[in-house]
From TrEMBL:
Name of the molecule in the record: DUF1707 domain-containing protein
Alphabetical list of InterPro entries matching this protein: DUF1707_SHOCT-like
All copies of domain DUF1707, residue ranges: 5-56
Pfam families assigned to the protein according to its UniProt record, in alphabetical order: DUF1707
PANTHER family: MEMBRANE PROTEIN (PTHR40763:SF5), MEMBRANE PROTEIN-RELATED (PTHR40763)
Length: 190
């Protein structure tokens, strides 16, 4: 077994495996409590592996990919519905549009780093929702616009912070809330 040191994220993943196993009836409450305490103080990968070795991993939350790279020229791209948000994205667009819709996305961590390289006609749209904050302060741009909707009040906890870095030499970045349907607009007026 590896003697590599574990992170808080590794400990949290092990605790989630233990909780799911207890919910399925594979561990008693006493076993769960004992193993969770051990997971929270574990120092190495082998310490954590011992705690979950006798448990199945099916039914566990999916593990996000470390990085997704999108290099697109011409056309349109879209991530929508129940897609798994990675830890990092590298996006390069030229004469193309890419929409990342987070309204139904599966979010397993608190920060998404996106490095952009937007060339002429390369446009990125982020569709957010409550608890999703976009920070585009570290994007340098010579042409194109950056439009980020204001953060909603402090009563909504932040679920995901999207941090954009990189450059735009002719593309736009827009972060917005989902568009309301005609029915939603009518209900809101009444």
């Amino acid at each position: 077994m590896s003697e590599q040191r574990v992170s808080h994220r590794d400990r949290d993943a092990a605790v989630e495996i233990l909780r799911v196993a207890a919910g399925d009836g594979r561990l008693t409450a006493a076993e769960l409590e004992e193993r969770v305490e051990a997971a929270l103080v574990a120092r190495t990968a082998s310490d954590l592996a011992e705690l979950t070795a006798d448990l199945p991993l099916e039914g566990m939350p999916p593990q996000a990919r470390e990085v997704i790279r999108i290099d697109q020229r011409f056309g349109e791209g879209k991530r929508a519905g129940r897609w798994l948000v990675p830890h990092r994205m590298e996006i390069r667009l030229m004469f193309s549009d890419l929409k990342l819709d987070f309204t139904e996305a599966v979010i397993t961590h608190d920060t998404l780093h996106i490095e952009v390289d937007l060339r002429i006609g390369g446009n990125l749209t982020l569709v957010t929702g409550p608890g999703i904050v976009v920070d585009a302060d570290d994007v340098t741009y010579s042409r194109g616009d950056i439009k980020v909707h204001p953060v909603t009040g402090p009563e909504i906890p932040v679920r995901l912070r999207v941090v954009l870095t990189g450059r735009s030499t002719g593309g736009d970045i827009v972060a917005r809330l989902p568009r309301r349907t005609p029915w939603q607009r009518l209900r809101r007026k009444s």
